[in-house]
From TrEMBL:
Originating species: Pontibacillus litoralis JSM 072002
Entry superkingdom: Bacteria
Protein name according to UniProt: LysR family transcriptional regulator
Positions of the HTH lysR-type domain: 1-58
Keywords on record: DNA-binding, Transcription, Transcription regulation
Molecular function terms from GO: DNA binding; DNA-binding transcription factor activity
InterPro entries found in the cross-reference section: HTH-type_LysR_regulators, LysR_HTH_N, LysR_subst-bd, WH-like_DNA-bd_sf, WH_DNA-bd_sf
One GO CC term, this protein: cytosol
Family, similarity comment: Belongs to the LysR transcriptional regulatory family.
Matches recorded under PANTHER family: HTH-TYPE TRANSCRIPTIONAL REGULATOR BSDA (PTHR30419:SF28), HTH-TYPE TRANSCRIPTIONAL REGULATOR YBHD (PTHR30419)
Amino acid sequence: MDLRQLRYFRAVAEEKQITKAANKLHMAQPPLSKQMKLMEEELNVRLFDRQGRVLELTKAGEILYQKAGHILSDFEDVLVEVRETSEGIRGPINIGANKSCFSFLSATLNRFQVNHPNVCYQLREGDTYLLEECIRNREIELAVVRKPLYSEEIDTLPLPSEPYVLVYPNTWELTSDDDEHIKFAQLKDIPLMLLHRIKGTGQFELIVEEFRAQGVEPNVICECPDAAMLLSLVSSGMGATIVPESTLSAFPFQHLKSYKLANTNITAKSVVIWHKDRYLTKASHQLIQTFKEQFFHEQPKILL
């Protein structure tokens, strides 16, 4: 059995039909069928059960599918690492980011691009849960996300924490005793639209719990995982939102005003994350170093 056969097998398992898998692999159907038969003969087990026109994995097939995925991914890591012994920093870099902390990424990429103009990028947007999944599935190498995290397989570089701000339409007559801060009690009845992850807990729960700790029940009229969509709705006059301070500068919509939240210690915490047990390309290592230079004023280091 070789790597080529493992790739063929995983394609058949994912497409559930020989014909579809052959099309995906850009090969004829009979040679692919022959390879599946040879694998079953070599292993002396059935890898597929036929359910009408659909091929379903047997228990043995499920085990091979999972193990083959690890083998093929590890082999790709080996190829990248070997190539990089004789090459400089190269792309593409596959990166993810929450929109609510995109300003951290944009500032760093600007700096990185000046020093490494030949590197290209593939960006993925999503909430923290989704981007952790993307890292586990090797769809991206790095991501900039909001805490909390879920996986124990992740390494992190903490970024500076920041306050939350109330953002509201400039047509509202919302005043405070303090020119910069507003108390939770003053937000009791205003319609709020809050960030809420598609899966798991995060900023939504943090903010709602803080409201209740301050003796106020928030009037939440909308929940959304996309910070830019919420700011657009605020700009239209639909309601107010609470987002990390840098989010407001990353998406400068018109017709907005803001206050920091008074008498609270809650802060938005962001981290750069990557898989702790996988090979990171030179470009990704250098990008992590650039984050340190950008936000913690570390001296530049060039990876050889």
